[in-house]
Amino acid sequence: MAKIYSENSIENTKNLKPKNETVQFILNYSKALKVVNGKTEKYELLLN
């Protein structure tokens, strides 16, 4: 079953093309995200 599933997923990913809006959203989000290391934790800040 795993072999069948992986073959189908590889076939399906060849035709995936994200919209320009999706790419821009992800890029803008990553530019606004800042990770600060604390003493015991990491803090994620969204700078918008």
Would you write up a description of this structure?
This protein has a domain of 31 residues. With 48 residues, it is an alpha+beta fold. The N and C termini lie far apart (45 Å). It is built from two helices and two strands; from the N terminus they run ααββ. It is elongated.
Strand content: 15-25%
What is the share of helical residues?
A: 40-55%
**What is the succession of H and E elements?**
HHEE
* Average pLDDT, all residues: 82
Strand order of the main beta sheet, please?
Answer: 1-2
Structural Rg:
18 Å
Structural class: alpha+beta
How far apart are the first and last residues' alpha carbons, in Å?
45 Å
**Could you give a short account of the major beta sheet?**
2 strands, antiparallel
Q: Count helical runs.
A: 2
Poorly predicted runs are: none
Shape descriptor: elongated
Count of beta strands: 2
Summarize the structure.
The protein is α+β, with helices and mostly antiparallel strands. It is 52% helix and 21% strand.
